[in-house]
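tool=predict chain=A
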Amino acid sequence: MKSVDRIESNEALKELMSELKNLGLKISVITLRSKDTTVMILKKLNILEFIDLIVTREDVSQRLEQLKLVLKFFKVPPHAIVFFGDHETDLIAGQTLNVKTELIPKNPNSLGVPEELLIKLRSLVEHHKLFCRNSGLPS
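tool=predict ok
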């Protein structure tokens, strides 16, 4: 709960989440935090409205099983999602399911949204826009 108090909204993150949603992408958050704490964090970040699914330790406490829940909920194959994690176990879970996994190094001194996450989300937005343009799909 102490970490929740220090979280502040990040306009760049909000804009990226909005762009991802406008591109038609679905967004899920999986975490080992409680559902209540997770919702508080997403509200403080001002991005709760962009989240389609929240999976917490109350749903299942193993990352691999959390990812399986996401795949089942969205009814998509593993290659259709990108998973951003911050721990080696996240990478292992993603690789086990053949899910594209991006590690965002955890900085214990950081109180904000990691810049590396923003960079990777910008890249995802640009990649999706390029894919849509090249395939003739609306972006």
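The chain has one domain: 2-135. The CA atoms of residues 22 and 130 lie 15 Å apart.
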